[in-house]
């Protein structure tokens, strides 16, 4: 079962994460095949929001709404069930400094 794990941080976190903490989480998961891919995202100020209204494509640079939390990265997990996804997420350094949101991939035919 695959899960998208959104890594969420405060828009202005108190302190940056130590990259070695992330490596300690990533390396064994990559070796076991439980982590399919993961990336850090560009700052929210560099985002582009896309909407279609009245047949016209509208774009807005930067965050569309004020928010105190932003998605700063993601990982795709390939695990047996939600319990395993929760266990893996609980070991991520951002579980202590932010939050992690898990969403199962929904098959197209459901």
TrEMBL record:
Start and end residues of each YCII-related domain: 25-108
Xref: InterPro entries: Dimeric_a/b-barrel (IPR011008), YCII (IPR005545)
SUPFAM superfamilies to which the protein is assigned, alphabetical: Dimeric alpha+beta barrel (SSF54909)
Record field: transmembrane: none
Chain segments annotated as coiled-coil in the UniProt record: none
Pfam families referenced in this protein's UniProt entry, alphabetically: YCII
Family: Belongs to the YciI family.
Name assigned to this protein: YciI family protein
Source species of the chain: Microbacterium deminutum
Taxonomic classification: Bacteria, Bacillati, Actinomycetota, Actinomycetes, Micrococcales
């Amino acid at each position: 079962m695959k899960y998208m794990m959104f890594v969420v941080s405060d828009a202005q976190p108190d302190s940056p994460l130590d990259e070695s903490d992330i490596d300690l989480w990533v390396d064994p998961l990559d070796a076991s095949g439980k982590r399919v891919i993961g990336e850090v995202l560009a700052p929210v100020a560099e985002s582009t929001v896309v909407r279609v209204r009245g047949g016209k494509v509208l774009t807005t640079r930067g965050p569309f709404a004020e928010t105190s939390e932003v998605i700063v990265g993601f990982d795709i997990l390939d695990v047996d069930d939600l319990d395993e996804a929760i266990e893996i997420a609980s070991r991520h350094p951002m579980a202590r400094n932010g939050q992690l949101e898990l969403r199962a991939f929904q098959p197209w035919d459901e």
